[in-house]
Design a protein that fits this description.
- The protein is 53% helix and 4% strand.
- It has helices spanning 13-25, 30-49, 60-74, 78-97, 116-122, 127-140, 145-156, 160-165, 204-216, 240-251, 276-289, 294-301, 305-312, 317-328; strands at 171-172, 177-180, 198-201, 232-233, 236-237.
- A three-stranded antiparallel sheet has the order 1-2-3, with no helix packed on it.
- A hairpin with a 2-residue loop joins β4 (232-233) and β5.
- It is elongated.
Length: 331
Amino acid sequence: MTTDKDDLEPIEPGTAQKLFLDHKATDCTDSTVRNHRYRLNPFVRWCGEEDIDNLNDITGRDLQRYRLWRKDDGDLNKLSLRMQMSTLRVFLKWAGSIEAVPQNLYDKVMVPRVRPEERQRDETLDAEDAQDILDYLSKYEYASREHTAMALLWQTGIRVGSAHSLDLDDVFLDENYVQLIHRPDEGTTLKNGKSGQRPVALTPDVSEVLADYIQAHRKDETDEYGREPLFTTAHGRMHGNTIRRLIYRVTAPCYRGVTCPDCEGDESKCPEAVSPHAIRRGSITHFLTSDVPVDVVSDRMNVSRKVLDAHYDKRSEEVKMEQRRGYLDDI
């Protein structure tokens, strides 16, 4: 069923944005709502500049003009533009449900396609997507190795090599942390060697997932050195590449029954699946967007501030501006 324009209820773009964010706040994290707001702010600003004061009046041609304007105004790469237009599409689909725009208008949002090589260079798992994946795994595959690996990598931002190196003795569930240790003589290393050794805090929820995985789903195996790995297969310590394959599989939208535009429903070949490094980038960006100080994130993730700024911090300049505004408003 489609909505005729005569059936629409007038609403200003800014008012619609606020209602949408209030709607999202009922079942999304604060950081996810913040991300939606940051990505929709330019659209509301553009509507103001174009004297569009009623969302009912937006057309497919307007959406194309906005897409071109946004790319030039924000100096966005293709991946960033894809994320922004995807959020606008979600917003307009919701707007169609409240008679603010025609119900099929969201289909006219042109979301850029991104080649695999472009994604791999700069791909980042968005906080909302990460939460959707974790919600699905928690409901249907609770404490499985897939759920446990995904929860651990997202919440800690550690590298695959660090997850691969963990033993049961490195997991301190009562104190809610894991201890990363460089053991080159026993087949497990950290990227930064001994300087990468550190305790990494866990939330109680992630500790509970780890505890239930260890009790119910971990295979009781040792590796060739007699150590008890956290992640195991029937042959001993799970290989790092196996962890990577798990992550690629569970991050594919089709794995959890979500349709994606460029996929034939095979999660093993899904172009929307992301690598563990994209989870690390996304986790770091999520912490920064949540106003965790840069130095704290740098220490937690074992990455220098220079490298963090250059390769991991994927906040847009507008997000950074809004965060600075939060500190300066009361001065």
